[in-house]
Write a structure and sequence with these properties.
Its EC number is 1.1.1.100. This is 3-oxoacyl-[acyl-carrier protein] reductase. Belongs to the short-chain dehydrogenases/reductases (SDR) family. This protein is globular. Helix 2 runs parallel beside helix 3 and helix 2 packs across helix 8. By secondary structure, the protein is an alpha/beta fold. It has a single domain (2-244), classed as 3-Layer(aba) Sandwich (Rossmann fold). It is built from 8 helices and 7 strands. A 7-stranded parallel sheet has the order 3-2-1-4-5-6-7, with helices on both faces. The two termini are 30 Å apart.
């Protein structure tokens, strides 16, 4: 019954960062699996486009225009859900600067979105799941940066490492209530976040990243969405506190 194990019919999923990239791919795939999807993002236009994609494919979507760094906005959006079975905390930003040139405001901004934004989503999701005594699955978005050092990635890597620790800690605290908490740590994925160079430089970067992978390619948002669906579904019913690494084999930690 592998197909049935991935069926989310009758369930509700909340996805932050749903306006584009990995978040959009997750929202669309979770909806295709049968879930009613609540998408949240600061990008109202992109969020509307995601909802339209879901509805055009026969799915059900709700939208929440919010800033994940605002705890109150996150709480109100999550509490508006009649039920919550899946939280996918995907929203994130990129910043690059050498350690010696990193400013306080750089670190604060990245931590606010990439760690605190995930923390708030996890807290509010877990509170609602506990209140409804319904169990559920929380999926956080880490990064391959937690396994390999990279020049310029101090702020991003530190925030994602904090997400991993949050994931493991929360998993130990809520597992007894039937709530699973896992992280996805993607490798290089072709998204608006990674597409921040001119065409020539972008092609060079992607070619370099592809050569580092045994599979010889970079990832697509859908590659990560399938990992999120696995962790969101009953197919991973005995999995919690883990890091799933769809990275093309670039990092292979024990």
């Amino acid at each position: 019954m592998p197909v049935k194990a991935y069926d989310l019919t009758g369930r509700t999923a909340f996805v932050t960062g749903a306006a584009s990239g990995i978040g959009r791919a997750c929202a669309v795939l979770l909806a295709e699996a049968g879930a009613t999807v609540h998408g949240a993002d600061l990008d109202a236009r992109g969020l509307h486009e995601t909802a339209t994609l879901i509805k055009d494919r026969g799915g059900t979507a709700r939208t929440h225009h919010l800033d994940v760094t605002d705890r109150t906005e996150v709480r109100q959006a999550v509490e508006s859900c009649e039920r919550l079975d899946v939280m996918a905390a995907v929203a994130g930003i990129m910043h690059s600067s050498p350690v010696l040139e990193t400013r306080d405001e750089d670190l604060d901004r990245v931590l606010a979105v990439n760690f605190k934004g995930v923390l708030y989503a996890c807290q509010e999701a877990a509170r609602l799941m506990l209140a409804r005594d319904s169990g559920g699955s929380i999926v956080t978005m880490a990064s391959g940066a937690v396994d390999t050092g990279g020049p310029g990635l101090l702020c991003y890597g530190v925030a994602k490492a904090a997400v991993v620790q949050l994931t493991k800690t929360l998993a130990t605290e809520v597992g007894r209530y039937g709530i699973r908490v896992n992280a996805v740590a993607p490798g290089w994925i072709r998204t608006p976040m990674t597409d921040r160079h001119d065409a020539g430089a972008q092609a060079h970067t992607e070619a370099l990243m592809a050569r580092m992978s045994p599979l010889g390619r970079v990832g697509e948002p859908e590659d990560i969405a399938h990992a999120v669906l696995h962790l969101a579904s009953d197919a991973s019913a005995f999995t919690t506190g883990q890091i799933l690494r769809p990275n093309g084999g670039v990092a292979m930690p024990w």
